[in-house]
């Protein structure tokens, strides 16, 4: 979408659709006061009124959009408002929309531009890849948005560009999650990373099964051995380690489909398991954004990718695996496979001597029970790092909520016959999974983000979400890394 800025008031624009976003109980321009009163509009959060002013003001249609009270206004309010605006334009088949902010908002111009651009782009997103015979009105896309504000500035314009770059990363992640497991096996996910490397300054290396065997990726190989679609390990590297250029490792679970393996899931739990690579999608999306923004960092993206299938070659309950670290895992349930592939990837991350390891995975159903789809579960071994991620969650609206990793939880996953067992019983399922992962990161500052509830929306909760992949993590990681470089 083309997003441009002009200074002025949206009610003076002769356009097919103008959006007037208003704070609650804020003073208004003369010309709209009577219109607004007639529309019973107070500016409450998310309130909308579509008016046909018939010459009272210049726009042919005017959508009043409530932003709520001034003291509660955040970037998230604007993201949602822009998404609502674009959806309205699409419904009305208006290709070019003017979005007006008449009030002076208590937010930095750059943040206003960024939030509006993110909301507009993400609100316009659809996944139509497998729809056939669509009529033109069903594929209609809004092409342009003009932001009309009292004072359009260069800062705001730069914010718009940033928001669009970030949104493209989110949409890449959404596309990857929405792709069915059958069309995106590990080798295809690896190809997506290679393609990313071709269009950005990211260096990509793919380990195939032979290489994984040579190197000793015993966890990843075991999980992948039941599928004809062989596992891959994806290494993406942006920048290089240097003085003032710390290394950050991003690790993403890349299960292109999780049937549960021999511990087979019931069908209701198996649908949506194409999204079990949501962590890897976030890492690919974030790598793209980081490279496009040229952040002064060394960022390494690591994705262990496999398909978890039941067959005569599958790994089984009772098997004992030797991971890349040398640590052994007793398998009690083949459906707790994410932590097994991540064990190898997290251990591998240590070779970069990173300042932080941030890992994202659709790891446990238990986190969905605990937090629903409104927050990502977080566990960590370094509070400063966890606090920074939490802050990024508040800024981006990709909220995280922390759970403890006390010693008692580590006790719950000790095995009688191996070093660790891959499930810890019914209690504290998300935390024992996090404790399991923490056993493979050494002393490096580590944060685990369980996105099982947030990576895939069966019913979207925000105007800029759609049913399917949310792209969660891309905005969170980008914000964290941008702040990290300050
Ligand atoms: N991929 C699932 C977790 C999941 C559940 C993601 C729901 C998204 C939505 C994971 O591999 C899994 O199956 N975990 C098991 C662990 C259990 C066997 C200890 C679970 O949560 O049931
Ligand atoms: Zn599973
Ligand atoms: Zn899984």
Automatic annotation (TrEMBL):
The active site is at residues 265, 339. Keywords: Aminopeptidase, Cytoplasm, Hydrolase, Manganese, Metal-binding, Protease. Pfam families: Peptidase_M17, Peptidase_M17_N. Mn(2+) 2 binds at residues 253, 258, 276, 337. GO terms for biological process: proteolysis. It catalyses: Release of an N-terminal amino acid, Xaa-|-Yaa-, in which Xaa is preferably Leu, but may be other amino acids including Pro although not Arg or Lys, and Yaa may be Pro. Amino acid amides and methyl esters are also readily hydrolyzed, but rates on arylamides are exceedingly low; Release of an N-terminal amino acid, preferentially leucine, but not glutamic or aspartic acids. Its main location: cytoplasm. It is an enzyme of class 3 (hydrolase). GO terms for cellular component: cytoplasm. Mn(2+) 1 binds at residues 258, 335, 337. Its EC number is 3.4.11.1, 3.4.11.10. Its cofactor is Mn(2+). Presumably involved in the processing and regular turnover of intracellular proteins. Catalyzes the removal of unsubstituted N-terminal amino acids from various peptides. PANTHER family: CYTOSOL AMINOPEPTIDASE, LEUCINE AMINOPEPTIDASE-RELATED. Belongs to the peptidase M17 family. This is Probable cytosol aminopeptidase. It comes from Candidatus Chloroploca asiatica.
């Amino acid at each position: 979408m083309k997003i441009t800025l002009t200074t002025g008031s949206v009610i003076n624009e002769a356009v097919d659709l103008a959006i007037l976003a208003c704070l609650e109980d804020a003073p208004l321009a003369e010309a709209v006061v009577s219109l607004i009163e007639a529309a019973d509009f107070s500016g409450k959060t998310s309130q909308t009124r579509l008016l046909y002013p018939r010459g009272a003001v210049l726009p042919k249609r005017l959508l009043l959009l409530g932003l709520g009270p001034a003291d509660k206004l955040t970037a998230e309010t604007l993201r949602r408002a822009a998404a609502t605006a674009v959806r309205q334009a699409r419904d009305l088949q208006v290709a070019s929309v003017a979005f007006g902010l008449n009030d002076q908002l208590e937010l930095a111009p750059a943040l206003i531009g960024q939030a509006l651009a993110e909301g507009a782009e993400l609100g316009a997103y659809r996944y139509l890849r497998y729809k056939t015979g669509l009529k033109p009105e069903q594929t209609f896309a809004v092409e342009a948005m003009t932001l009309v504000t009292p004072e359009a500035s260069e800062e705001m314009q730069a914010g718009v560009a940033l928001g669009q770059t970030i949104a493209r990363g989110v949409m890449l992640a959404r596309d990857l999650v929405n792709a069915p497991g059958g069309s995106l096996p590990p080798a295809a996910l690896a190809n997506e990373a290679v393609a990313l490397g071709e269009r950005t300054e990211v260096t990509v290396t793919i380990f195939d099964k032979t290489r994984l065997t040579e190197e000793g990726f015993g966890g990843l190989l075991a999980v992948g051995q039941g599928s004809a679609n062989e596992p891959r390990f994806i290494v993406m590297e942006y920048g290089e380690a240097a003085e003032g250029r710390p290394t950050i490792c991003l690790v993403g679970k890349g299960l292109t489909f999780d049937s549960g393996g021999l511990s087979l899931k019931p069908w209701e739990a198996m649908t949506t398991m194409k999204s079990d690579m949501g962590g890897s999608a976030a890492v690919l999306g974030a790598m793209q954004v980081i490279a496009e923004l040229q952040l002064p960092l060394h960022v390494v993206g690591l994705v262990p990718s496999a398909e978890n299938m039941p067959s005569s070659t599958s790994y089984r309950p009772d098997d004992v695996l030797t991971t890349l670290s040398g640590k052994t895992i007793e398998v009690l349930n083949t459906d707790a496979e994410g932590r097994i592939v991540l064990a190898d990837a997290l251990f591998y991350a240590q070779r970069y001597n990173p300042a932080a390891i941030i890992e994202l995975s659709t790891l446990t159903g238990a986190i969905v029970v605990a937090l629903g789809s409104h927050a990502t579960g977080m566990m960590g071994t370094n509070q400063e790092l966890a606090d920074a991620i939490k802050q990024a969650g508040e800024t981006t609206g990709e909220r995280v909520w922390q759970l403890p990793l006390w010693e008692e939880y580590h006790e719950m996953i000790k095995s009688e016959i191996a070093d660790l067992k891959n499930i810890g019983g019914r209690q504290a399922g998300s935390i024992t999974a996090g404790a399991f992962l923490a056993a493979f990161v050494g002393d490096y500052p580590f944060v685990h983000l369980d996105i099982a509830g947030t990576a895939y929306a069966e019913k979207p909760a925000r105007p800029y979400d759609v049913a399917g992949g949310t792209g969660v993590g891309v905005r969170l990681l980008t914000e964290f890394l941008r702040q990290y470089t300050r």
